[in-house]
Specification:
By secondary structure, this protein is α/β, with parallel strands linked by helices. It contains 10 helices and 23 strands. Helix 4 packs across helix 5, helix 4 runs parallel beside helix 6 and helix 7 runs parallel beside helix 8.
């Protein structure tokens, strides 16, 4: 029998709750008919936002939402999204050439903050540094954070119905500036970052600014950025890293070999984290450039979701995607000392999505269930944990005297039996949640919303034996003695 070992005395760091965050871009069906269905919708809603999503976000304790992009952010003027909705302009959406859609600006800053508060999440705003000036972003921070009765923008916020400041802490300084955000070189971006960051940082106390880091394994970008920013440092709290593991074969009807290929691609996340972090610490920037992996997930061909291709990039989610989520979150937990935050892309009706929605219907995908199963790690002390079988990925944490262990079987071919040993502690009872399906291509639909759903069990006398079905995910919570 294979083994899982947890070394209870060896702590790797604190698992920031923000590792379990999400991304919501003005793209396809993410915002309109996604999180927002309108107050007159047949779907149950609060201020026009889907109550189903709000309730599920709270249940999974999703701590942070990144918005408004993504590439959309790089042509977004925040002023278009405030004031009376009937007077807001319609603009060309960044993604217009892909799907022909325009941006109605019915969801702007005030509505986004409202959605965050309904979900119990903190906002993380990606600021446009490609087509606006540092003063434009300063004014946006002013609108969000200046106390009532102090500035013209604070008065405008109050006029729009929001007297008290939003106190938005996290701001991204640009997005993918190596690509759609201006096709910049790292040298040029570093200079622009310093210029924007100095102005932004003086607009409000307590800001945490996130620089644009590399595209996946572009280690040269990080090297050059750190070389420049470490020499003449500006205010910075983190560096964004984007890595999509892509696809392998069909979204749903993949082969076993294509399953293996996607798992290998997802597993590259570990090397990407370790190599970028090695560069960060080599420049003494570990306090300024903790990694913010604020776009990650699978990127399959679109057209398999409920809209049948009407929503750009919308795709279904199978057990293969759920195992990718489990593997990736385990890697994040194991490297929590290097990571400030992460955000999966995206929240609804898109890539690697947590929800699918249209009109009155809204369902959870297997990805959502993984996030909900893993929530016990949030704020815990990560422990060293490993399995003797290379097809098993695990992570463990301790909080308030309880051990949370999450595991996934990366093999689509065989079940695996394991025995759990916790060095330094004993345990007795266990609560186990399992996400498994005999059909690894199974997925949830509006007609069958629980085709893939977790099952729970409580074991009074847990002997440490675990049975991981092929292509499955498990979360175990035990009280330590």
């Amino acid at each position: 029998m294979e083994k899982i070992y947890v070394v209870e005395p060896k702590r790797l760091g604190k698992i920031a709750p923000e590792i379990y965050s999400v991304f919501a871009e003005h793209l396809g069906g993410v915002i309109y008919d996604g999180i927002y269905c309108g107050e007159d919708s047949v779907a149950e809603n609060i201020h026009g936002f889907r109550k189903f999503i709000i309730d599920k976000m709270r249940e999974a304790r999703i701590p942070l939402i990144r918005w408004p992009g993504g590439c959309f952010a790089e042509t977004y003027d925040w002023r278009d999204g405030i004031g009376p909705r009937s007077e807001r302009p319609v603009r060309i959406n960044w993604w217009n050439q892909c799907d022909g859609r325009y941006e109605p600006n019915q969801i702007g800053t005030d509505e986004f903050i409202d959605f965050c508060r309904l979900c119990g999440a903190e906002p993380y705003i990606a600021a446009n540094m490609t087509s606006t000036t540092p003063l434009d972003i300063r004014d946006w921070i002013d609108y969000c954070n200046s106390p009532a009765g102090t500035t013209t923008y604070a008065a405008l916020r109050e006029k729009n119905g929001h007297k008290e400041p939003y106190n938005v802490r996290l701001w991204g300084v640009g997005n993918e500036n190596w690509g759609g955000g201006g096709n910049m070189t790292p040298e040029y971006y570093a200079n622009e970052y310093r210029r924007y960051a100095e102005v932004m940082n003086n607009a409000s106390a307590g800001l945490e600014l996130i620089s644009c880091g590399p595209n996946g394994a572009d280690y040269g970008w990080t090297q050059t950025l750190m070389d420049s920013l470490s020499t003449k440092r500006g205010p910075m709290a983190g560096m964004a890293v984007h890595y999509y593991c892509g696809s392998a074969g069909d979204t749903i009807n993949f082969t076993d070999d294509e399953w293996d290929q996607l798992i290998r691609q997802a597993a590259k996340m570990r090397e990407i984290i370790e190599r970028h972090w090695s560069t960060v610490i080599s420049y003494g920037m570990e306090n300024q450039a903790k990694l913010c992996i604020d776009e990650w997930g699978c990127w399959h061909p679109g057209g398999t979701g409920p809209s049948k291709g009407a929503n750009l990039f919308e795709q279904q989610v199978t057990m293969r995607d759920a195992v990718v989520s489990a593997l990736t979150l385990n890697i994040f937990n194991q490297n929590c000392d290097k990571i400030k935050l992460c955000a999966t892309a995206q929240l609804v009706n898109n890539l690697h999505t947590l929800f699918l929605a249209h009109d009155a219907d809204c369902i959870c995908t297997p990805n959502y269930h993984v996030f909900n199963m893993y929530k016990g790690h949030q704020g815990g002390d990560a422990l060293e944990a490993f399995a003797t079988d290379n097809d098993v990925t695990v992570s463990a944490s301790e909080k308030d005297g309880a051990l949370t262990l999450t595991a996934a079987n990366l093999s689509c071919r065989r079940d695996i039996e394991l025995d759990l040993t916790v060095y330094g502690k004993d345990y007795n009872s266990a609560d186990i949640i399992s996400l498994a399906n005999d059909n690894l291509r199974a997925h949830n639909t509006f007609d069958a919303p629980e085709a893939v759903a977790p099952t729970s069990a409580h074991i009074d006398s847990f002997d440490g034996r675990i049975e991981l079905a092929r292509g499955s995910v498990m979360a175990i919570t035990v009280k330590l003695k």
